Amino acid sequence: MLQERFLIIQRYARISLNFVILYFAFSLPFSYMHNKKVVTLMLFLWVLSLDYKRAVFLLKSSRPFQILCALSTLIFLSYLWSDPYPGNFYGESGFYIKNYLYYFLLPALIIATALEKRYVKPAIVLFLLSMAVNAAISYGIMFEWWSVHSPVSPKSSPQNPIPFQSSHIPYSTFLALGVLLGAYYTFTQKKLPLRVMAFLAFSALTILLFSTSGRTGQAALLGSSALLSVLFLRHYLRYLFIALGSVAVVFLAAYGLNATFEKRVNLLYKDVAKVVTEKNFQSSVGTRIAAYYIAPYLINPDNLLFGTGIGDKERYVKKTALHEFPYKVKNFRKHGRLHNAYIEMLVANGAVGLLLYLGLFYSLLRQRLLDMQLRFVTAASMLVVFFAGFSGDIFFFFSIKLLFGFFLGLSLAWYYGERGGVKPQTAYKGETSAL
């Protein structure tokens, strides 16, 4: 009797969890503070309904799932050989681990081990729909029809409409992915009304992306578009050149027609020129270039394999920037942040951590899926996050962590839906990957 009641509770918890994940897909572009509460609810339902067999299957057969677990274990263990200190984002182990769990690891694990295959595509559509809603709100701010006062987006203004994100960096990253998904649905939808809606979303998000000061998202869109064209059209040279040409036309048109984008590109050119001619790194772009200059000073035989540990990373960067690095970079000396996810990972978790981190992206692109849409969505989302990492540490931004974990979980959930219960070595007719 007791077992029957538990099975009933488990079944209803599993059904409820799937619908909460769909709600999470829609709420994702909104406040990360609200999404943390959603993740807490997801965790409660997940504990009640955990499918151990599914988790074990993914652990045995899914390379991305294995790398995710290995990378997270290394990050958590790195606090054992570092010297954490309070008043610092990375230095307080409890603070960092809690946020890494809530904003990245738990969403990825919960969605991967709980979401049913039939809800994966609706979740993607809900995310794109939510981005369209965000775009409408942003246009209202831009045209001064209304204002949005959010504790997490104090920098929102008509000149830089960011309704629910903490800064232009995460918001432009979300917009870049929204543009790619809108473009995909525009070309693949067979029903004319849906194709028109997708095109409108694509157009609105593209214009908005170039109207904000988010060069991170713009660069991520450029890199992702070019690489996606090569990955998916490399066997069709005519379409490949058309796609690459279209990307070039979009960016050239944005430069000629959008004053904000033109101003940011000109500023980028001036900042790079200062770095080259004067070795002046006191700018947003200069700080990011300086990360490559300081990297050799930060890596030594003692921390090459496993790094300094997350807890000691910022203090180590500050010390090196003050006493060894010959150039003055305020951000390095004051905050100890390098604004580059890959160099940050190399310093904190060494070559092992960096290889695992890069291996996570590579394994997701190599993951063999039968469905073309999920192959594209997986590749697009991972490439956007990958290129965003060159502009900042994505594990510093709560919203980008949520985005990364969400689409990572969706890809793994679809993988299980196609292969669940099948031996890992079984071959599938027609299976392929992005690479």
Biggest sheet overview: none
* Unreliable runs: 423-427
End-to-end Cα distance: 51 Å
What is the structural class?
Answer: mainly alpha
Identify the quaternary structure here.
Answer: single chain
Number of helices: 17
Number of β-strand runs: 0
Radius of gyration: 22 Å
Mean pLDDT: 84
Q: What is the share of helical residues?
A: over 70%
Succession of helices and strands: HHHHHHHHHHHHHHHHH
> What is the molecular shape?
globular
Strand content: under 5%
Summary of the model, kept short:
The protein is mainly alpha-helical and 435 residues long.
Structure description:
The protein has 435 residues and is mainly α. The chain has a domain of 304 residues. Helices cover 71% and strands 0% of the residues. It is built from 17 helices and no strands. The longest helix is centred in the N-terminal third of the chain and has 26 residues. The chain is globular, with a radius of gyration of 22 Å. The termini are far apart. About 1% of the residues have low confidence.
